[in-house]
Amino acid sequence: MNFVKRAGRSLRARKSKTAVVLGIFVVISTLLLGGFLLQGTAARQEADARRDIGVDVTVQSSGLTSEVADRIGASPLVSRYNPLLVLTAGAQGLKPLESELPQPGGKGDDEDKGKGKGPLAVNGVKDSGLLLPFSYGSNKILTGRAITSADADRKVAMVEQRLAKKNGLKLGDTIGVKSAGGQRTLQTKIVGIYQDAMPGPAQWEHPSKLPGNVLYVPVATARELSPGTRHLAEAVFKVGSPELAKQLHDEVEKLLGAESFEFRVNDKAYNDQVRPIQQVGAFAGLIVWLIALAGALILALIVALQIRERRDELGMLLAMGEKKWKLIAQHTAEVAAIAVPAVLLAAVIGQVPAPFVGEALLSGRTGAPRMTVGLADLGKVAGIGLGISVVATALPGIGVLRLHPRSILASGE
User: Fold this and answer.
1) Domain end: 222, 238, 266, which one?
2) Helix axes 66-73, 242-256, angle to 10 degrees
3) DSSP labels for 67-124?
4) pTM of the full predicted structure?
5) Which residues lie across from 78 on neighbouring strands?
6) Can you tell me whether residue 228 is helix, strand or coil?
7) What residues form DSSP beta bridges with 108?
8) Are 207 and 301 members of one domain?
9) Bridge partners of residue 55, in order along the sequence
10) Is 321 left (phi over 0), alpha (psi -120 to 50) or beta?
11) What is the pLDDT of residues 215-241, one digit of tens each?
12) Domain total in the chain
């Protein structure tokens, strides 16, 4: 008789033992599927965190210009970047804030005007969301929106709420900004009003030093106010991981030289969010290997016990001329036939606890975890299940190869 048919009849004849092996396989497959689901969810969460959080790299150098920043920002390592051009400007139709503290003697407005220092601090930016005060919450936008790369050719501005309150400004209003020397005047439209948590200084400061007098405009607008200003105060680049930040350092070094720049990596948010997700993924991978190993050992023990119980059957088959490898193949087919429905049952059962496990391990990182059972996950579980079937029958199969029908039938065991 074909060993496959014998395997089918054997499973039907030993229904209780078949049910036990099926139950064990369902548990193993469910745990394996849960491990793969957790791995996949952790990988998706990590990718989302890399994209949304990433690592902020701040570059400062005397040779850092907008052109150099654009070349660095064009690197495939960089997802977003923001050059910062800082200058002072005058105001038209706008009353800047002034310090309420007395001004020290010997420092008059004429001295500041002689230096070409206006009362407003203008920060030319490409993406204000990358600035540390905005990305880490000390500054927050109350109404309107931030300045983005889409505003590159627009005359727009973000103003601080204290300056807006003093002048009765609201979204859509237009304010005049003059170059420090007064030669140029630009009309800018207010697109955002933000709040700076920094209080006023404890001593008298020039109006341009007051946090309430800081305007954010696109870099091109800042350049129009001061065409001669080429050097940037700094540039912030967002990359996906600390490892990519190291690669970016090498690229910056090629452009600016080894000794001429400062390179700061801010990976606190990345470590707070991404590292725990990576640890969950590694833990899930370890679970998968442990379950596969334990499952193979448990099933090998069960198959070994079954072979011992079926020695008479094996002896009769060997006496009838059946080849030993076919006996091993029969046991492998029996276990594999149980593995297939076990995987299908695991696909149904595993979806019940998986979301709760994922929520417990990954919630609060970068949003609600998305746990979905895919064909790839089922394929992995089925592959490991069949691998366990082979291993679980190969080990006891060594004992089958040593069997002799005469000794089996004579001993009566």
Assistant:
1) 266
2) 140
3) HHHHHHHTSTTEEEEEEEEEEEEEEES------SSPPPTT--HHHHHHTT--SEEEEE
4) 0.62
5) 239
6) coil
7) none
8) no
9) 239
10) left
11) 999 999 999 988 877 789 999 999 988
12) 2
